[in-house]
Amino acid sequence: MNVAVLFLLGLGLLEAECRCFFNRTQDHCVCYNLSQESVNSIIQCLPASVVEFRGGDLERYVAFPISDPDPNTIESLGSLGFRKIIFGDLLVPEILLAQVLRLFSYTHVQELVFDSCVFEGRGNWDRMAGQDLPILSLHFHNVSSAALTGREQDFSSLSSFLGALQELSVTTSHLTSLPCAIGRLFTALRSLDMAQNSLGDESLTPAFCSGAFPQLRVLSLQRNNLTSYHSVCEGVQLLRELQHLSLSQNKLRADPSSSCQWPLSLRSFNLSDTGLEEVLTPLPPSLEVLDMSCNHLHTVDVSLGSLKKLFLSQNMLEAAPSIRNYPLLDTLHLDNNSITELPWDEMKNLQDVAAADNPYMCSCSEAGGLQALAAVGQLGQGWPQHYMCHAPPHYRGRLVEDVPISVLQCNSAAVVVPICIVLVLIAVAGAVSLVRSRPGLVRSCPRM
Fold this sequence. Notes:
Blueprint: H1 2-11, E1 19-23, E2 28-32, H2 39-43, E3 50-57, H3 71-79, E4 84-93, H4 94-100, E5 111-115, E6 118-120, E7 137-141, H5 152-156, H6 159-162, E8 167-171, H7 180-183, E9 191-193, H8 201-207, E10 218-220, H9 229-236, E11 244-246, E12 268-270, E13 289-291, E14 309-311, E15 331-333, H10 344-347, E16 352-354, E17 360-361, H11 364-375, E18 389-391, H12 407-410, H13 412-437
Parallel strand pairs: 2-3, 3-4, 4-5, 4-6, 5-7, 7-8, 8-9, 9-10, 10-11, 11-12, 12-13, 13-14, 14-15, 15-16, 17-18
Antiparallel strand pairs: 1-2
Helix pairs in contact: 8-9
């Protein structure tokens, strides 16, 4: 047990009075300002699978000797049940991190998170060469460190560790570039999140060079400094396994002409909130999910034979796109547009339709179509509160749900005509009956 506590202290925080809180329901323990005098508080974290350390400065431990553990220490480290460790609000000397990281090879920790940390100095990573770690997910959020350029040799010593990672995120960390040689070390990475950084168009081609991230499936470049649709396409076209790409919250422009071909493997494309006034082309040919919500689109006139889900909420559409352009479509979201009527007859085969907060013309056919979709559960959330009539004037402000759609009110001709026919038939029958009851009324024509 003492060895386990020393491990926590070696990873932990300093100064002030330590406070640890263990939530047994969530199996999550949080410690604030860990110190060597607070062993009793730390012990309560030992049963947790998620341990979080927040607050402190590790500089005073830079000279702390960390030697290779003996067999008893290795056994004690292996007995810890930690699966995820989070470090937050810390000043981390890189030279200390380089020594401590080796201890993780004797644990079962699979996920490591650094949140709001500052990495100081430059460590010696030579002893990590060939070292395998159980960590599969590595996350950095709001961190700062020395630039990655020129540090390819440091990272090469971590090749065994980085080559086994499956998930990596570096978010809100002012990242401007990622050297090609570093990208080539992530041979098994499946998911890469670099959202909310400072990556520009020119940084993508070097980052995703030939041989970099060969197994990458999911890539998020949300909220960076990307502007050229063509440059982004060229930057990622070597990612042959890429299936999901998010460019959300970049301000993309349409290039005069683009012959770039997106990876054929791409299935999901997020272009939401990118300032689009028209649909950018070319689109990946095998898309199944396309998100272009929160833009300024007036029309969407593209054909994608494999598309299954289309998200167009919060645009300026005055009409829904033709469902015939998407034969496999099962989901269509059109909330917050300027649509007055929906092709509800085309939509009846969809599984999920969302079209709330549009200025509907509540004709009998339109209101009836929406009510029919709602009756079979296709409209989902938003119905009925966010489906309002904008016209005609006598229905303005009323819920579409409350518009009467009875035959008498919606098609008076369908009622009046049959009544008239019945009346005529009754009159004819009455006349015939009268003639038969009084034969003298019918006189034969005189013969010449």
